[in-house]
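Example complex used in Figure S2.
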Amino acid sequence: MIAHPGGSRRVLMKGNEAIAEAAIQAGCDAYFGYPITPQAELLEWMARRMPEEGRAFIQAESELGAINMGLGAAATGARVLVSSSSPGISLMAEGMSYMAGSEVPIVLINVMRGGPGLGSIQPSQSDYFQAVKGHGHGDYRVPVFAPSSIGEAMELIATAFEVAERYRTPVMLLADGILGQAMEPVDLRFRRPERIEAAWALTGADGRPPRVVRSLHLVPEDLEEHNLHLQEKFRAVAEHEVRWAGEQLEDAELVIVAYGTAARVARTAIARARADGLKVGLFRPISLWPFPSALLAALAERVRGMLVVELSAGQMVEDVRLAVEGRVPIAFDGRTGGMVPSPDEVVEALRELDTTGLAARRSRRARRRQPGPVSGPEHTHERTPLAASESGHEALSIFGDDAWMPLWYTSPVPSRRGGKR
Amino acid sequence: MERSIIFAGFGGQGILFAGHVLAQGAMDEGAEVLWIPSYGPEMRGGTASCTVIIGDEPIGSPIVDHPDAAVVFNPPSLAKFGPIVMPGGVLVVNDSLIEAVSGRDDVDEVRVRCTQLAQEAGDDRLINVVALGALVARAPLVRPESIRAALREIVGRKRPEALEIDLRAFDLGLASASQAPSAPAAQAATWSDVGAAR
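Predicted assembly (619 residues):
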C-alpha cells in the first residue's frame, strides 16, 4: 500500500497500519509486541515492514517479554515502540514503572478494548485511569496523548517519540478499537523527529567511563533526591506539553469535553444540537496527562455547563471536575463494555444539562441576591460577564489567540499549547 | 451532509470488501470517508457487517443509528438492518438467499439476484460486487466510474487476473437495478429527502 513513503498522496488506511507505518517513518528502530485484538494489525504491519527496513521486530513470548525487551533496547538509546491492548497493557505495568524510574524513553500504544479483565474486544476508553494515574507503582507520571482520527494518530506518534526523548520518559499513545480498526483517508506525510544526543545511553563503555541505567536506589536519601528530580521533570512536562483542540467554542453556552472516539461522537451530536438551537462547543483534550486543566477552568468562566462523554463509566470526568472546581455543573454520559454512545443519546444528555444548568445558575443568582449570614466567599465562582462572548473574538482572547487549533488538523502539532499554570 | 451505508451478511460474503471499494471510490471523488468493520466472534459464521460514512467534511460519529442505505446478503442481516434504514433510503436485498421482504413502504427496496448475476459475470462469489452495482444505481453516493476505478486499484493491485470479472459483475448489478421496477408505489420519501429528516 505504501508505494511512495514521504509523498503526499491521500490513501485509505486502517488505523493500526497507519500508526505502525507512521512509527516506522518517525524512525522507530525496534518494535516488540504480542498479538491481541484490536491492535493485532499494528504488530502484523511491523512484522512485515520492520525487516524490510532492516530494523528490529520481535514477537515476544508474552507482554512481559515485550515490555522488558523494550526496556533493554531503549536503554541503548534506540527509538523503541511497544504496543498492546488493555489486558496486555496491564501486564506491562511493571515495565512502565521501571522505565519511568530509570528514565528510559519509549513509546507505548494502548488500543483500548472493553474491561475489566479479559473484557471484550470492542472499543473502549476504560483505561483512562490506568494510563493517566498510574500503570505501575511509585510516584511517577507518563505523558499520554489521545488521537481522535487516524491522521492525528500518525502525527502524534512522531510527537510521542519527540517528547519521550526530550524528557527521557515513557510516553503513551491512547487509542481505542475504532481508531485501530477503522479506515480513513490519510495524507502520507510523515515526520521524523531529530535525534538528540543520548549522553546517558548504554552503548558500550569503550574509551569512556561506564554509565548505569537503573531504578534501584537503596539509600532513602538517594531515592528521595531521584524522586525530586523526577518531580521537577514532570513539572516541566506539565508546563510545556499540554495539547488540546477546541471547536465552536466562541459562542458556546454548553461544552462537551471528550477525547478520542468519544470526541467524534460529540462532534456529530453538537451539529445536531446546534440545528436545534443549542449553542454547544467541543473541548477535546489531546494530552490526557498533562491535562489541560487551566484552559478548562478558564472556559468554565464563560459557559453554563459541561458534559463529559466517554466510552467508560466515567473516568476523565473526575479530572474535569478537579479542573473546573464547581464553577459550572458537570454532567456525564458514557457507555461501557465496548458500547459507543450514539449521537442522539449525547444530544439528549445535552438537553438535560441545558435544563439543570439553567436551574443551577438561577439558584446561584438567587443566593447572591440574598443578604444574610450564608454569603461566604461569593465571588470565588463569579462568572466573567458574558459581554465578552457577545463579540466572539474578544471572548477568545482569554486563551490567547494562538491557543486555538482546529479539531481536524493535519499540520504538525505545535510543541507548546496553552498550559498556563 | 453525511451519508451512511451498512453492508451486512455472513462472514466470507465479501462484506468488508464491498465497503472498502465504496469508500475508496468516494475518497477518490474527494469526499471524506470512514470505513468501520464489525470485528469479533461474529465474523466466524454469524453476521458480519461494515459501515461506510461519506461526507463533505471529516466524519464525526462512527456510530450510525439510522443508515441512509443498507445492503443485506443474508436473512439475519435483513432482520437486523432492514427496520433501521432511514425513510426514503435504499435497501438492497440479496434475493438469491433472502426470501423475506422488509415490509417497509418508505424505503426503496431493491431485490437483486446476486448469485445468478455473479455467475453470469464469471464468478459466483462476486455477489458483493453485484450488490455494490445495484446500490450505486439507486443511491447516488458515488459515480459508477469511480467504483470501477476503485476496483481497478484494489483488485488490480492484488489479483489483476480477476479484474475483468469484477468489473463485469459490477456492471451487471448496476444494470439490473437501473432496470428494476421501482419499489412500492406509495413511497413516503425519496432519496433526496433522506438527511433532511435528521
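The domain at 2-177 of chain B is CATH 3.40.920.10 (Pyruvate-ferredoxin Oxidoreductase; domain 3). The interface with chain A takes residues 2, 20, 23-24, 27, 32-37, 39-40, 58-63, 65, 198 of chain B (CB under 8 Å).
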